[in-house]
Known about the structure:
The complex is a heterodimer of chains A (115) and B (117).
Chain A: E1 5-7, E2 10-13, E3 19-24, E4 31-38, E5 42-50, E6 53-57, E7 64-68, E8 74-78, E9 87-94, E10 105-106, E11 110-114
Parallel strand pairs in A: 2-11
Antiparallel strand pairs in A: 1-3, 3-8, 4-5, 4-9, 5-6, 7-8, 9-10, 9-11
Chain B: E1 4-5, E2 10-14, E3 19-21, E4 24-25, E5 33-39, E6 46-52, E7 60-61, E8 64-69, E9 74-79, E10 88-97, E11 103-107, E12 111-116
Parallel strand pairs in B: 2-12
Antiparallel strand pairs in B: 1-4, 3-9, 5-6, 5-10, 7-8, 8-9, 10-11, 10-12
Amino acid sequence: DSGVTQTPKHLITATGQRVTLRCSPRSGDLSVYWYQQSLDQGLQFLIQYYNGEERAKGNILERFSAQQFPDLHSELNLSSLELGDSALYFCASSPSVAGGTDTQYFGPGTRLTVL
Amino acid sequence: AQKITQTQPGMFVQEKEAVTLDCTYDTSDQSYGLFWYKQPSSGEMIFLIYQGSYDEQNATEGRYSLNFQKARKSANLVISASQLGDSAMYFCAMREPSSGGSYIPTFGRGTSLIVHP
């Protein structure tokens, strides 16, 4: 158990809908990272937040947005869902902003299926 | 261009033997970090080992060691004395500095390791 929690574990929805994925980092970790893992794209970094502020952006679509709240939990919002958004979404956390030498601890993931 | 290349989509090894999983990377930064993660069939991502670009010694964590060859831009994972529980996908990853003062992580496509009894 990494100490990172993600809810829900599974999510099935329809095209065009909007969903919210939730992540609670390990106690004491200030950075949260979001990743998407799909068969064709592999594991892609989406976005990083540190202590409530966006710090790094990867291959995140405009239909997706995230935020980190004062209690450090984070939410990833996916809207206007398409079939291709079906994937495993991971959240990871680390203690600091730099992340260069920080170990990222991954949550169990949310499996999103768009029908 | 791929920043992280894992050329072995699948590897097989006999239990108790050692196996090397290849990883090459591409960066122009001097400061970066290299990581290996394990993903069993259950889906979670498990951190295995880290190597900093300025570290002169190869990193080791129990049965895992990272064979770091900076000039060749290679960061191979060596698993000694393989166990059946080592069967999983293994991902090599690199973190490079970003303009915002943070680091951008990039993952390879992974190598599937199967350990035979």
